[in-house]
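Pasting two entries for a bug report.
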Amino acid sequence: MFDFGIIPPAMFIGMVLFMLFGFPVTFSLGAVGMFFGLIGIATGHFSEAFLQALPLRFFGIVSNDLLLAIPFFTMMGAILERCGLAEDLLEGTGKLFGAVPGGIAYAVIFVGAILGAITGTVAASVITMGMISLPVMLRYGYSQRIATGVIAASGTMAQLIPPSLVLVILSDQLGKSVGDMYMGAIGPAGMQIGIFMLFILGVSIFRPGLVPPLPKEVRGDLDARLIRKVLAGMLPSIVLIFLVLGTIFLGLATPTEAGALGVVGALILAAAHRRLTWVLVRQAMESTMTITSMVVMILIGSTCFSLVFQGMDGARWIEHMLSGLPGGQVGFLLFVNLFIFVLAFFLDFFEIAFIVIPMLAPVAQHLGIDLIWFGVLICVNMQTSFMHPPFGFALFYLRSVAPPEVKTRQIYLGSIPWICMQLIIVAVVIFWPQSVTMWVEKAKDIDLDKVKIEVPGFGGGGGMTLSPPGGLGAPGLNFGTPPGLGGATPPAAKPAMDLSQPPSFK
């Protein structure tokens, strides 16, 4: 553990202790980094020349075009949270599925997936569905554990379904394309929706009393009016999803430009629902400013820590420890996911992404792990950070809007089956990497032995051809016929030079 000195382990332990005592993350990281940096300079373990890069790193953070997507996606979610779209979706789909046992739970999962695809924020999804669906589910006999669990879990799908903020941050930290990260998340997101639906189906078959259907007088008739209402809620969502995701996947817009389109689309939807007011815009801007400022401050603190940590050979220490784990890639991934699962009890996903991922990414790359696969896997795992009792943010959001008769203990117990299902998806992604990589477009392989470059000839001569008949190490060169001089008949062309043989001088 101390092959690279005692300072890297001491830095890591100091960072953990600072955060366990409840100090703000950004100041904890910056203070630990600067403190150990001064110790390293005094003891000769760290060069002060490293600190010259700190202002450049700060400038790199605030000038990062990719991170501009965060305020755009945040503002889009904040507007949609207040524009009435979720209410229309939940009411229409609840009545559409209400005739079958578990119908409202199916509607919550379905709407949670759509809200995840158009907002990318957990708070908006959980609070909206908790305010609208939870009273209805409890009124008509749903189990408190099932009702609270399905709402909290469906809200956390926003972390995995594009345009997730977590995927944007992970792509930045891993140095990968946001579009590729979004494409890679499609498979696990679809599997998660499927396993949630199967769980409700199993409950409705074996314990139908826990998820009764809605009475007919509540759900009404399945007629054209109801279908029109469902479509009126879905079609704007589909258009907005295309504006945000379709333009990224088709290469028509960068994530930042797609986020800007999403904000415009959200404003149009709010106006269509007659909810577009200055109060709504001001609240959305305040929420966006708060989250964006938090992200930038955590990034500034983490770059102070990581600069000193790497200057102390901390990255080599982490790589030395984790590269020797038994089991190769699978052993490393199992350890990392268990480690992040435990960290998520105490740290927010922003903190994990900015602190832990930069330490683990070089080791993953050294072991030959596809970083898109690695990033999506970490994202699936970090979903559980929103569901962990007692610190899960989704549980806090739900507690804030749940009726008084719903006890906190019921919310915590209700989250356990859904955490287990999320961990099943983690295991599937570990042992079936194609669930991620099959969606990502691979770069075309080029056979270098077949590369041929043709250059126009000189004067009256022929063209020049560069081709590697025996591989790139033995190219054949043909400069064609030299131009005539003074009208004289040009000499016969010499055969092409064979550079695979030593030159002869005559």
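Entry 2 (this is the one that rendered wrong in the viewer):
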Amino acid sequence: MTLHIPQASLREALSQVLTIAKQIDAEGLSAAERANVAVSYVVENSSAPWPLALQRQILSDATKALQPDMQAPVATERPPAPPIATPSKAEGTSSPAPNEVSSGLMALSNEVVQALSEILDFSDLAGQPRSEQETLIRDSIRELSEDRKMHLNGREVTNLVNAVLADMLGLGPLEALLADDQVTDIMVNGPHQVFVEKSGKLELTSIKFRDNAHVFAVASRIVSAVGRRIDESQPMVDARLKDGSRVNVAVPPLAIDGPTITIRKFPSNPVKLDALVEGGSLTSQMAAFLGLAAFLRLNILISGGTGSGKTTLMNAMSQYIPAGERLVTIEDAAELRFQQPHVVRFETRPPNVEGTGEVTMRTLVRNALRMRPDRIIIGEIRGDEVLDLLQAMNTGHDGSMSTLHANSPREALTRVESMAALAGFAPGTGVVRRQLTDAVHLIVQVSRMRDGKRRITSISEIAGLAGDAVTLQELFTFDTDPSSTRTEVKGEFRYSGYRPKFATRAAEYGVGDELDAVLGTRT
């Protein structure tokens, strides 16, 4: 069915578009851009149907009217592109989904980047300040928009400028995901597949890279910012972003389907235990207990799987460390964010191109012992540095903390023994177990459950040695309810009623009554 619009309606609509376009601030906008904005506004606010051909005609006539000195285009010239506006429901076309819009913007930004490579000298651009880079790129994009008659309105030009700036000076398509507070993890599996984690669940996004070279360029930009490199000779790299987010990059030939980038984001504001209580990760009683444990300088191991929230919990517990203490943190990629004023941070270094210059975790731990630390905090123990940490805990550096990968407190003890064997200790001799019993006070187990929530499933105290076995006393536990479903985990946190061995230390620190109040016990 053909919809006929009277000529009077065309004249009336054109007059309305011109009236609105002339009221728009012309600074920085071409006649086509002002006409496009005005057409978009009129279409969106009109109750009558607007066929696409009519929109094109009005856009063309309005552009000519706003540029009286320009010659009329010849009849064979291609008509201007239709305005980027939401089609009316009368045309039977639904509003485009946000994912489709972002894909179109990405495709357009890719074309613009290629066009800018012919206009701008990127080598000269790289040596200029960021503000001048942005100004030159923005001006060049506006010129391209006018020369190629893209007919973009002011908002679309701004979005395009931001996309191109992110592609050329930032992290490209990942910038939007990094700005989204709901996204906690970003996983790039080659150029055409980008997953994110929101509320503990994985989601496939519509964001895509141009090709493998585009992904590799973004990955190189990330690792070079922290003085590292990624290539075939070193195809795996751990790095970090400016905000402390952890990054892992792997490229071919190890990554078969193209370069991969995995980003673990950290919240912009420091996470506190109260926020974890509100999120259901633990109870207020458990939070108060862990706060006292950090204040009392207990040596704590936080155990859990990948992405279970070990580092987040350690950051949250750090708020209870007194401000007058000197902390030394050692990590493979710096991600701990303590709020104390006296924090010295170290980061391991991989070998250089010649295979020399490597600085290991164990070397940094030994160096930290000569720096008069009150506490030594290791981001994650995964090798022979565990022996130096245990010795530090046993030689006056109480209050030290670290994380490790294990599925339960008992498995965490086994892993510590296995890692100590890497330092030359024969497993099963009992030496490591005695050191472990004397050094570590608490093991906190964290799990990410199938419903996406992260919970503290156990807080256990090392009670001592029974023969040749380390005995554990569980203080808090999370008991799963049988009514749990495939998508929802139900249960409750329970306190065992056991009085911890460090109650004597709490009394020496003057917080014995506070510990009794938290546990609900009285001696």
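Dev reply: Rendering is fixed now. As a check, the viewer should reflect this: The chain has a mean pLDDT of 80.
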